[in-house]
Specification:
about 55% helix; globular; Citrate Synthase, domain 1; Cytochrome p450-Terp, domain 2; 3 strands; about 400 residues; mainly alpha; three-stranded antiparallel β-sheet; binds coenzyme A
């Protein structure tokens, strides 16, 4: 390689594939310019508060909203698949209590493959069965880990309860009131799918190799755990707790922006306007705060949004907007959920989207069919002069 082509490659910008269309999908669409999120043709904001998470699961997996009988059958199947293999619960008991919940979830997904003969069958039907199992079991894993790390016995799922209420019950041991369960259900609806975000792309990339659903979803969980992706909701709450009071907001924003830090829950790779989901989550946070007699965290968020948007505009000369994590953090906090479980809760919902994408990646019936992902990279590493380096055995180096 000559020096001129080396310097050419150094000019390549790492854009993180922003604006590059890499596949076709029928599952969802995000219009970042106007703040539109669509699940199989329906606006997510129209579904929120009107359909259950189970209906969204049906929509994403079976490509239409269910009728009553179809929904009833899906709920029954989910309820029958919630229990974990004993070996998995036993394995969770052996984990260090300070292990990160997303690491636990990722490991649990991989372990579930060991117990499922469908993992060895490459077919659409098998993938759908695994999808239902994973959607059913995610809440059980997350709740079991919360209880195990607090030296409590994991609770059996309650077959009488729907997906959202059952999770809160397994987490806390208390059957939630209707409003709390409804709000949590809406959170699940809003987080279920978001086109080719980092974790979905990770899951699809693995699926494109024809690896099974468990391997693909485990990759998605790993990707979601990152601070710049799903991990942001945990960090939003940690930031609010650190700020502590509305009076400290100005200082926090000034110091963070001056030191080149990021305000968690603001900014998005696609939206150039407020994330439509944030506008549904904010009133829920406000209501839960009022009900808890602790409006402080909601008020602090509102003030932080206002101050940070203004300061960002002054500093960068452009707007910044709230994303889904900004207000979901206080919604979960008001529900009494520990901050480091916010990202696993995101996963409890997003598993529906990941599963739909893995199935589309592997079994899409219509053209254009997906292909194995294999992008190019530009080598900007060293050569020994104009030529490749001559290998030297270890004793001569
Ligand atoms: C999500 C995120 C990674 C998108 O980043 P991006 O695509 O680079 O966003 P932009 O291109 O609009 O960023 C432009 C500039 O604004 C800055 N910026 C973006 N979000 C910011 C934030 N939340 N706080 C402070 N500065 C921010 C970037 O650092 C960049 O600065 P630079 O031009 O000096 O390099 C980024 O907004 C972020 O880190 N947000 C906080 C984490 C978060 O909430 N993630 C959840 C996303 S759903």
């Amino acid at each position: 390689m000559d020096n001129s082509s080396q310097s050419e490659t150094q000019a390549i910008q790492n854009t993180g594939l922003r604006g590059v269309t890499i596949a076709s999908t029928k599952i969802s669409d995000v219009d970042g310019a106007v703040g539109k999120l669509v699940y199989r043709g329906y606006l997510a904001k129209d579904l929120a508060g009107k359909v259950s998470f189970e209906e969204v699961v049906y929509l994403l997996l079976y490509e239409k909203l269910p009728g009553e009988e179809e929904l009833g059958q899906l709920k029954k199947r989910l309820a029958s698949e919630r229990t974990l293999p004993d070996e998995l619960t036993d394995a969770l008991r052996t984990r260090p209590k300070d292990a990160l919940p997303m690491d636990i979830l990722q490991a649990a997904v991989a372990m579930l493959a060991h117990h499922d003969p469908d993992a060895k069958e490459h077919s659409r039907d098998a993938a759908l069965r695994i999808a239902i199992r994973l959607i059913a079991k995610f809440p059980t894993i997350v709740a079991a880990w919360e209880r195990i790390r607090n030296n409590k016995r994991p609770l059996e799922p309650n077959p009488e309860l729907d997906h959202a209420a059952n999770f809160l019950y397994m987490l806390t041991g208390v059957i939630p009131d209707e409003e709390t369960a409804g709000f949590f259900d809406t959170c699940l609806v809003l987080h279920a799918e978001h086109s080719f975000n980092a974790s979905t792309f990770a899951a699809r990339e693995v699926a494109s190799t024809k690896a099974h659903m468990y391997a693909s979803v485990a990759a998605g969980v790993g990707s979601l755990s990152g601070a710049l992706h799903g991990g942001a909701n945990t960090r939003v709450m940690q930031m609010l707790l650190e700020i502590g009071s509305v009076d400290n907001v100005e200082n926090y924003v000034d110091n963070t922006l001056a030191s080149g830090g990021v305000i968690m829950g603001l900014g998005h790779a696609v939206y150039q306007t407020d994330d439509p989901r944030a506008h549904i989550l904010a009133p829920m946070s406000q209501k839960l705060g009022k009900r808890a007699g602790e409006g402080k965290w909601y008020d602090l968020s509102v003030q932080l949004e206002k101050v940070a948007k203004k300061a960002f505009k002054n500093k960068k000369g452009k707007e910044i907007y709230v994303n889904v994590d900004f207000y979901s953090a206080t919604v979960y906090y008001y529900m009494g959920i520990p901050a480091d479980q916010f990202t696993p809760i995101f996963a409890i919902s997003r598993i529906a989207g990941w599963a739909a994408h893995v199935i589309e990646e592997q079994f899409a019936e219509a053209a254009p069919k997906p292909a194995l992902y294999r992008p190019e990279s530009d080598y900007v590493g060293e050569y020994c002069g104009p030529e490749e380096c001559l290998f030297e055995p270890i004793e001569d180096r």
